[in-house]
Specification:
Number of domains: 2
CATH class of the largest domain: Alpha Beta
Strand order of the largest sheet: 7-6-5-8-9-11-10
CATH superfamily of the largest domain: Vaccinia Virus protein VP39
Number of strands: 11
Shape: elongated
CATH architecture of the largest domain: 3-Layer(aba) Sandwich
């Protein structure tokens, strides 16, 4: 027979562990929504709000639970384990096979349901601690302390261990297994109070076995669902600490996707990278030292290495897994022509904003090859403050080239980027190029001095770009020339570009 103190301690430990699981589900659903549905701010806001609303509903429902408290808690944990465990696995299936919008409904419904079940947990544990002999003040304080402390631990575990090491699908099954194990643990501690304890334990063991099968095989099945989201067969799939990295290949066309967003297609990437690199190099008065912000695939480096006068190329790319892939994957090494083997190339894995804040180095050419501003983290790399930092690292006579999304699909965003660069004290000129895999794509060339195109010519070997072609790239149709737009500057305090970007691309 276990003592009352041991049973009470088991309750407090259980409350802490299930609280850790609860916060992990909360952020897991936000991360899954961000990856599948896009717009990270919206998805995290909705999932956290729905989860907390569900917890409020669950707390209200818990008033009705007055008898058989441990068995009630055990089966609530079993339900959370089943629903939470299959949540992200099924989300990928719903996204792959059902109509558009069904995935959002499914995610929000599961979030509310798991939140509701989670909200029932703690009041039951507090009530059971009171039954054993604890005072209400003591039991409530200790259970809530375990809950809040567990929230911090759960968040840290998700960020630094679960998401980068196991991915979204496997993490859900692992956390669900912990829920089921907690239920069995309390079932053992209170076995003397429970009828048909073996039946409940057998059900729990069966659930755990199902969850273990999900841990070992669920990700592979979810991968087959995810394959349907991409046109071509997936040849590489990895979840890094920062993003989902996927490569596809079909009939020689290699494509790289980061968090579901196409980065390049091998059939036409040269159009993008030649436009990114050569106008900036041709207009720069100092080509010795080059800085690339982003560009971890090495394709811009390939173009830069055509210039013999370059002494150093510094790449600042946040995710080491992208660079590792570009150094080791046969297809990528073939595309970038082994660019990272050149001794002039140095890679720094750091946030571009922080790098510019700390560094005192100056560069004759700066290439900004960053993903579009489709979330709050990336939007800060398109702000006035960021472009001011770039200006401060630019040598006199130097040039900056910025990829600036599509002037056709997101006209207001493209010209907003241009206006923000000008507000940073740089002269700008505009280019756009047709890239079949992307569509019409825009760039902003910037210098401290006025840009004289008569002095700019393409003198290295290219597949697409010539001096004559540059003239055409500088011409914009009347429907996308931006002359009728009221340009607003994008800043850290007023990040107007993000909302405009999401609105512009919502129809594509």
């Amino acid at each position: 027979m276990l003592t009352s103190q041991k049973k009470t301690n088991a309750i407090y430990w259980s409350s802490g562990i299930v609280s850790i699981c609860g916060i992990i589900y909360e952020v897991l659903f936000g991360a899954a929504g961000s990856y599948i549905l896009g717009d990270g701010i919206k998805q995290y806001t909705l999932t956290i709000s729905l989860f907390l609303t569900g917890m409020g509903i669950g707390s209200y429902i818990s008033e009705k639970v007055t008898r058989n408290l441990i068995i009630s808690f055990v089966w609530i944990e079993f339900l959370i384990a089943i629903i939470g465990g299959v949540s992200t696995f099924l989300l990928f299936g719903v996204t792959a096979f059902l109509a558009e919008g069904t995935d959002a409904f499914f995610l929000y419904f599961v979030t509310l349901l798991v939140g509701t079940l989670t909200g029932v947990e703690l009041p039951i544990l507090i009530r059971k601690a009171n039954e054993i002999g604890e005072t209400l003040n003591r039991s409530a304080a200790r259970v809530l302390f375990s809950d809040y402390a567990g929230g911090l631990i759960g968040g840290l575990l998700f960020i630094y261990l679960l998401r980068p090491q196991f991915g979204l699908v496997k993490t859900a099954f692992i956390v669900a297994t912990i829920n089921a194990c907690v239920a069995l643990w309390l079932l053992y501690y209170f076995r003397d109070e429970i009828k048909r304890v073996r039946m409940h334990a057998t059900a729990g063991i069966f659930i755990i076995l199902l969850l273990f099968s999900g841990i070992f095989f669920g990700e592979e099945m979810a991968f087959s669902f995810e394959q349907k989201l991409y046109r071509d067969p997936i040849i590489f799939n990895e979840q890094s600490a920062y993003q989902q990295i996927i490569m596809t290949k079909e009939q020689g066309d290699v494509r790289l996707f980061l968090d579901g967003q196409l980065q390049f297609s091998s059939t036409d990437e040269y159009r993008y990278h030649e436009t990114l690199v050569h106008p900036a190099m041709a207009s720069s008065k100092n080509r010795a030292n080059v800085l690339i912000l982003g560009g971890g695939d090495g394709l811009a480096v390939r173009e830069l290495l055509k210039y013999e006068e370059i002494r150093s190329i510094t790449i600042v790319d946040l995710d080491p897994h992208v660079v590792k892939l570009a150094k080791t994957n046969h297809d990528l090494v073939g595309l970038n022509e082994g660019a990272f083997e050149d001794k002039r190339v140095k890679v720094i894995h750091e946030d571009a904003f922080k790098f510019l804040e700390k560094s005192s180095d100056l560069y004759g050419t700066i290439l900004v090859d960053l993903p579009d501003p489709n979330n709050e983290s990336l939007n800060r790399l398109y702000t006035l403050e960021f472009y001011q930092l770039i200006r401060n690292h630019l040598l006199p006579g130097g040039s900056v080239m910025i990829q600036a999304t599509s002037p056709t699909f997101a006209t207001e965003v493209y010209w907003g980027i241009d206006g923000t660069v000008q507000a940073a004290g740089l002269e700008t000129s505009n280019l756009h190029v047709d890239i079949p895999s992307f569509g019409d794509w825009g760039f902003v060339l910037a210098k401290r001095e006025p840009i004289n195109w008569d002095d700019i010519s393409i003198e290295v070997e290219t597949e697409f770009l010539t001096t004559e072609v540059l003239t055409g790239l500088r011409s914009f149709g009347k429907d996308i020339d931006g002359e009728q737009l009221e340009i607003e500057v994008n800043t850290l305090i007023d990040p107007i570009l993000l909302e405009k970007y999401l609105k512009a691309w919502s129809g594509y």
